[in-house]
Structures are given as C-alpha cells and as structure tokens.
C-alpha cells in the first residue's frame, strides 16, 4: 500500500474483547490533511519478539535460565537505584521456579540457590523502599531454605529494627 505525501497512519488498539489468544490487533487508518475522510483498515499481526513464555510452557532448563536472566535484570536495576522495578524482576524470577517437584536433584540445587539469591535481593529492595514487613517475610522464606543464612538473618534484623521489634532483631543478630 502506498501513501501519499502528507498522509498519517493512525494506530489505535481495538477493545479488549477483540484480543484473541496471543494475537494482538490494532486499528489503522490513513488520512490526509485536512482530516475529513478516514478510511479504517484493520491490521492483524503476531508479536514474535518480546512475548515471554509462561512458566508452564517452559522446560526445567528454560525455567532455570529465565530465572537467572530475571535475576540479572533485577541486579542491573538495583545498581541503577530502581528498587521497585528490581523487586518486580526478582519476584518474577522466583515464580518461574516456585514449583520444583518435577526438577531433578541438580536442578533442585540450582533452583534453591536462585530462590535464595532472588529473595535476598528482593528483601534488599524492600528495605530500600521502606517495606519492612515484606522484607521480613522474604528473609523468613530464605531462612526456611537455609536456616543459618547470615544475609537473611542480618536483613531480617534490619527489618525488625525498623518495625520496632528489637527483641526479635537481637535474636537474629
């Protein structure tokens, strides 16, 4: 389709009811100046890149790889001071490997290490965001996996101090 000089392509999303499966639709109209005649044109296309697979569509190695990638993305955001966005990456990472009953022994070890790292990093984000109760819960999750994890004990103590629970903070330290 050729456009004449001075025409504009206008894209607008169709109502949510028109979205089917993973196909996304948009409405496109071509118009020339002045906008007295608009010819609607519906364009359907698949978005191939940027669409993440759901965890149930992934194999175990894919889940572990995706978790590692999200963790690295979170680390970069944390270093940039974008704590809320980093926390979301860590949360998403843990969701990939939340259910590990089908994992082999080696994969369970990898998943456990990633869960510990992501939950600790998420807790660090929550402390920066002053979400102390959330930080405490995340550290407790880590301690359920590794009861003597020093970082988890320290970060949970920091959260307890901010929550004015000095007895529990002292117990962790």
3D architecture notes:
Keywords: Isomerase, Repeat, TPR repeat. Belongs to the FKBP-type PPIase family. It catalyses: [protein]-peptidylproline (omega=180) = [protein]-peptidylproline (omega=0). This is peptidylprolyl isomerase. Its EC number is 5.2.1.8. The protein has 173 residues and is of the alpha+beta class. It folds into two domains: 8-46, no CATH class; 59-172, Tetratricopeptide repeat domain (Serine Threonine Protein Phosphatase 5, Tetratricopeptide repeat). Helices cover 53% and strands 13% of the residues. It contains six helices and three strands, in the order βββαααααα. A three-stranded antiparallel beta sheet has the order 1-2-3, with no helix packed on it. α2 runs antiparallel to α3 and α3 runs parallel beside α5 (150-162). The protein is globular. Mean pLDDT is 78; it is low at 19-38 and 43-49.
Quick recap:
The protein has six helices and three strands.
The residue ranges in which pLDDT falls below 50 over 5 or more consecutive positions are: 19-38, 43-49
CATH fold topology of the largest domain: Serine Threonine Protein Phosphatase 5, Tetratricopeptide repeat
- The CATH class label of the largest domain is Mainly Alpha
Radius of gyration from CA coordinates: 24 Å
Q: What is the domain tally?
A: 2
Q: Name the CATH superfamily assignment of the largest domain.
A: Tetratricopeptide repeat domain
Tally of DSSP helical segments: 6
Structural class based on helices, strands and sheet pairing: alpha+beta
Oligomer: single chain
Q: On the 0-100 scale, what is the average pLDDT? A: 78
Describe the largest sheet: 3 strands, antiparallel
Shape: globular
Give me the strand/helix succession: EEEHHHHHH
Number of E-type strands: 3
Strand content: 5-15%
Question: Helical percent range?
Answer: 40-55%
The termini sit apart by 70 Å
Strand order of the largest sheet: 1-2-3
The CATH architecture of the largest domain would be Alpha Horseshoe
